[in-house]
Amino acid sequence: MKKYVFIMLAGSAVLVATPAAAEGFRAEVHGGWDHASADGDGESGITYGIGLGYDLPVGEKMTVGLDLSADLNTMEECETSVVVANDRACLDAGRDLAAAVRLGYKVSDKGTLYALAGYTNARFRFAYTTPAGVTTSDGENLDGFRLGAGYQHAIGEKVYGKVEYRYSNYENDVTRHQVLLGVGVNF
């Protein structure tokens, strides 16, 4: 997995080396539905975050670029009386970081369909509270890959809106599905 991250970072260095006058840098905020599951048991919540990227024109209709994102969410699942009466066990999904390559196809002057593929790393935390109120917790970062597709539409000269679907597959048979709406600015 680390060799794929290195390849993506090396590719992004080429994109970042493009002169500042080049168009294609973007920043956005996004949010939407998030569902994470392990071994078929899952929990849904709301995800929200930021994204940065750069899209380089390749020909008349195609773009290739780098897509970076950092997200948080509201997912937490708790159960009581797991080991003994009145104890509590909780699992929550923490931050989610991703770096992906994005390929786009301009379907109109204002609209672009795109697909993305890349690396993702998510934090999951487990907490157990005894009936006496003593809590122990542990967290784990899980590496994985992300696939996605979306549509981005220009709203004025610099502002855009987007809708995006993401599928992430992490270690330990953990998967995530997300549907996002976003608003961003092109620089």
Write a structural description.
With 187 residues, the chain is mainly beta. The protein has one domain (2-186): Porin. The chain is 8% helix and 71% strand. It contains one helix and nine strands. It has one helix at residues 2-16, and strands spanning 25-38, 41-58, 62-73, 76-80, 88-106, 111-129, 135-155, 159-170, 174-186. It has an eight-stranded antiparallel beta barrel with strand order 1-2-3-5-6-7-8-9. A hairpin with a 3-residue loop joins strand 2 (41-58) and strand 3. It starts with a helix and ends with a strand. Residues 4-10 and 12-22 have low confidence and may be disordered.
Terminal CA distance reads 32 Å
For the report, how would you describe the main beta sheet?
8 strands, antiparallel, barrel
Counting DSSP E segments of at least 2 residues, the number of strands comes to 9
Helix segment tally: 1
Signal peptide: 1-22
Keywords: Signal
Domain Outer membrane protein beta-barrel: 9-187
Organism: Sphingomonas parva
